[in-house]
Design a protein that fits this description.
The protein is built from 6 helices and no strands. By secondary structure, the chain is an all-alpha fold. Helix 2 runs antiparallel to helix 3 and helix 4 runs parallel beside helix 6. The longest helix is centred in the C-terminal third of the chain and has 38 residues. The protein starts with a helix and ends with a helix.
Length: 139
């Protein structure tokens, strides 16, 4: 079972991958990420994970796929909106943190996440409807 702490760690890894896809992460970028994350609840936990990945240098594709899998296994959560707000804060501040490839990764990740949850929601609604139809027919 995936817990909330694990999705925050995965998000920190995803931030690393988003910055890393456009090249190496310099100390200035790392400091800017830390400043942004401090403004958010659980930002310290996210930054710890970002920093850990920065020291271990996993493949960005692997991180993106693992994060998506973890989020899907965890299920819909209001925390994802916070993560999207962090991305927006990084882009709005015009801190040159996220390059063009990183922006594409954010868009791709958001779209995949929304699509998977909407597909699952449609399946759940369809099953619920079939259940209701079955119950109505059995009376």
């Amino acid at each position: 079972m995936i817990n909330k702490e694990k999705i925050y760690e995965a998000f920190g890894e995803l931030i690393f991958a988003i910055l890393r896809i456009d090249g190496t992460i310099n100390p200035s970028q790392k400091n800017k990420v830390e400043l942004i994350l401090k403004k958010f609840e659980n930002g310290d936990q996210i930054f710890w994970s970002f920093n850990y990945e920065n020291n271990h240098k996993k493949n960005w594709e692997e991180i993106e796929n693992n994060t998506l899998d973890l989020f899907l296994e965890f299920g819909p959560s209001k925390d994802y909106q916070t993560f999207f707000e962090i991305f927006e804060a990084m882009e709005i501040e015009k801190l040159d943190l996220i390059g063009s490839k990183g922006k594409k990764m954010i868009t791709r990740f958001k779209n995949k996440l929304k699509l998977k949850f909407s597909e699952n929601q449609e399946i759940i609604l369809k099953l619920k409807k079939e259940d209701e139809d079955h119950q109505d027919g059995s009376h």
